[in-house]
Amino acid sequence: MANKQLSLHVVGLTVLVLLLSCFVNYSVSKQIKTYKLTRGKLSVTFTNYGAVMTSLLLPDRHEKQDDVVLGFDTVDAYKNDTTYFGAIVGRVANRIGGAKFELNGQLYKTDPNEGHNTLHGGTKGFGDVTWSVENYVPTSHITFIYHSFDGEEGFPGNVTVKVTYMLIGENKLALKMEAKPLNKPTPINLALHTYWNLHGHNSGDILSHKIQLLAKKITPVDEELIPTGEITSIEGTPYDFLEPREIGSRIHELPGGYDINYVIDGIVGKHLRKAAVVSEKVTGRKMELWTNQPGVQFYTSNLLTSVVGKGNAVYKKYAGLCLETQGFPDSVNHKNFPSQIVNPGESYLHVMLFRFTAH
Predict the structure, then answer these.
(1) Do the annotations mark residue 95 as ligand-binding?
(2) For 203-246, how does the pLDDT look when each residue is reduced to its tens digit (9 = 90+)?
(3) Average of pLDDT values for 169-175?
(4) Is the residue at 117 inside a domain?
(5) Contact 60, 34 (CB under 8 A)
(6) Confidence at residue 267, expressed as pLDDT on a 0 to 100 scale
(7) Coil, strand or helix: which one is 237?
(8) Which of 63, 293, 295, 298 could form a disulfide with 325 if both were Cys (CB 3.0 to 4.6 A apart)?
(9) Cβ contacts of residue 216 below 8 Å, gap of 6+?
């Protein structure tokens, strides 16, 4: 009997050691690291902190490589970042007015991290957590995964979130954002918050970039950048980029710069629609953006104030532009906006496709 008890004790210890080993391995997999995808002359780097895109190297018309996204040299700098450089933001990107919403008769209060409103998921949104790496092939793709818990920043239910960056051919980058609620209905609206400067991240402002936005309408906002609920035409306003023109050509007519959601033309469905085309004349670089989402936030980094970034570059106002494809901001409080509510058993899918050329 004593030998039997000893054997059981040894087995128990062995199981405990194995469980501890699994825990240690899991902890190691959550370490913050950097990852690179490379194919041809396109090279992109990431960190699993915030699933952030930290750099993207592109050739210009003379084959000169430049990093065309703003960012930092160290992961610690991203931890202290208030700009959301390159991050995946959520559970609900953009703003929620009054940091509250009602769902199925219940009032939910979210973290008010911008005055009395919620911005990009709250104080510790998806851009400020450590993701795990589920799959990584350096010449092809990387998949990050995050398990968001019930009550995180005030949002209901457990949600599994996956983000896959994928190289296609030698000049395309695709991004697939997926989410599945596990036990409660919840709003989900993820966005990529990359700041682009096609002349190079350290080259100055983006006012001479030309942009075309394939959208005839916007969702106007109040003084706190919360949508009023209206959907209005851009005709005759500084927001009209149906034909390509320089970003700086009418920016002086706006208080601060561009920071508005455009309603992308066409029918929202399974097919991708072209949302924007950006070009830079000195380098000849051009970027096309396609998506399956109804909106795109055009932001001209109006709030950047001498942020020290990669290679000690100093990023000032208008140093980069953001094109955040998304559901409409504050949709949870506007019934006339496309719903962002996803129920258990349903899936959220957000696709972005970037095509880069230089002529």
Answers:
(1) yes
(2) 999 999 999 999 999 999 999 999 999 999 999 999 999 999 99
(3) 96
(4) yes
(5) no
(6) 86
(7) coil
(8) 293
(9) 233, 234, 235, 242, 263, 265
The whole-angstrom separation of Cα 110 and Cα 116 is: 10
DSSP state for residue 49 in the 8-state scheme: B
Range of the structural domain that residue 176 is part of: 34-358
Q: Alpha helix (H) ranges present in the chain?
A: 2-29, 75-79
Average pLDDT over residues 119-140: 97
pLDDT averaged over the chain? 92
Residues belonging to the active site:
193, 324
| CB crowding 280-304: b at 16 or more within 10 Å, else e | beebebbbbbbbbbbbbbbbbbeeb
Q: List for the chain the helix, strand, coil content (%; round to 5).
A: 15, 40, 45
CA dist 194 and 197 (Å) reads 10
Q: Is residue 15 part of a domain?
A: no
Model confidence over 306-338: pLDDT tens digits?
999 999 999 999 999 999 999 999 999 999 999
The verdict on whether residue 195 carries a ligand-binding annotation is yes
Cα dist. 55→26, 43, 59, 60, 64 in Å? 27, 8, 13, 16, 16
The answer to whether the predicted template modeling score (pTM) of the entire model surpasses 0.85 is yes
Q: Which two tokens stand for residue 333?
A: 């409080």
Is 94 labelled as part of a ligand binding site? yes
The answer to the question of residue 22 being in a domain is no
**Cα 169 to chain center, whole Å?**
22
Establish if 10 belongs to a structural domain.
no
> How many structural domains are present in the chain?
1
Does the annotation place 259 within a ligand binding site? Answer: yes
Band of the pLDDT at 110, cuts 50, 70, 90?
very high
Check which CATH number belongs to the domain holding 188 and give it: 2.70.98.10
**Cβ atoms within 10 A of the Cβ of 339, count?**
12
